[in-house]
Design a protein that fits this description.
By secondary structure, the protein is mainly alpha-helical. The protein has one domain: Cytochrome p450 (Orthogonal Bundle), CATH 1.10.630. A 3-stranded mixed sheet has the order 1-2-8. A 3-stranded antiparallel sheet has the order 4-12-9. A two-stranded antiparallel sheet has the order 3-5. Helix 6 runs antiparallel to helix 10. The protein is globular, with a radius of gyration of 21 Å. The two termini are 40 Å apart. The protein binds protoporphyrin IX containing FE (HEM). Protoporphyrin IX containing FE binds next to helix 10 and helix 14.
Length: 383
Amino acid sequence: MAHDPHGVFARMREAGPVHAIVAPDGSPAWLVTRYADVQAALGDPRFSLDKRHAKPGGYKGFELPPALDANLLNMDPPDHTRLRRLAGQAFTPRHTADLRPRLERTVESLADDLAGRERIDLVKDFASPFAVGVICELLGVPAESRSDFRTWTNAVLGADATREGIRSTVREMYAFFVALLAAKRADPGPDLLSALIAARDADDRLSEDELTSLAFLLLFAGYENSANLMAGALYATIEDQALRDALRDDPAGVPALVEEVARHMSPALLAIRRFPLQDIELGGVTIPAGDTVFLSIASANRDPRRYARPDRIQPDRPDAARHLSFGQGIHYCIGAPLARLEAELAVRTILTRFPKARRHAPISWQPSVRVRGLSTLPVELGD
Ligand code: HEM
């Protein structure tokens, strides 16, 4: 599965819309494979994200300390609504558009560092540092802590992650966030974490655990998926000469490419696990209340019932933007405008600064059942 998620999903999708499976931690769960069912379930309030609605013996997922667990992806309304309103303020499309000049400076300076090098890895040397840099800058994480992020996310999300490895990494991250929040409280800056601390301290709209959990979620969610989308969009551009020429002539086409790559690669293979609040019929199967349900975003996005020739990257598809890569409904990704902007700038920058960039060795994918992303994209920059 980790090595060929789309092949496995295609076989399952054709075999049936809903499958009884065994989750990575050995617990029983359901996997939903077709677009219509995944879309319906994503927006259905009868599916809870709150673990308290899970049956005993169900999927455990990451075992986070309570101070990191009080996050948006474990919550239903009304707590979710209150927290999302606070966090969402910083991620509106308008706010994100205002960030554009700052992001342009960051990406240009990364490109400056690459200039003059013959061979680079577009994941390690460009997409990852750009994604980490943006989210850390937004939140106000000091530059010296940024290199720890790749290590942490690999230790938690990698296919070879062990329970003990995850536990000790999470402890390390927790200590980091507690210290970071204390530093921001003592010395606030013009960043999102300082603003959230002010909101908490002003009228207790956020508990201390919610604040720490939100910082954790934003950094985690904001890094890995964004880096993967960016690397996927760069790969699509570099591999297809006709597409690359078309985008160089008309860079206004880059956002459509990013959207289509988001559909095609689905950086989050699965939505966050859900627990039905009552018995629910989906795709002709009755799923009992409290069971664990995985909605496969990646499978839905390549469902031939929804998209013609779904395995092809076709930026001019009329309905590309209706993909489910950022979820749907009340848990729709708050970072979607930021992720789109980062990927757009990454592609534009490489096209303009390194028009002759060519892949010189095979790529490799991260071996994961949760996320889809390149681990290497080796290119020669040309002149
Ligand atoms: C390509 C990049 C990204 C992808 C594919 C992605 C994907 C997703 C998906 C699928 C969900 C919904 C989960 C569900 O309902 O099961 C989600 C939610 C969320 N994402 Fe993203 N995300 C990306 C980038 C970001 C960024 C850059 C941030 C923050 C800076 C972010 C923050 C969040 C948060 C906070 C939620 C929870 C929203 C809520 O519960 O109300 N994401 N994301």
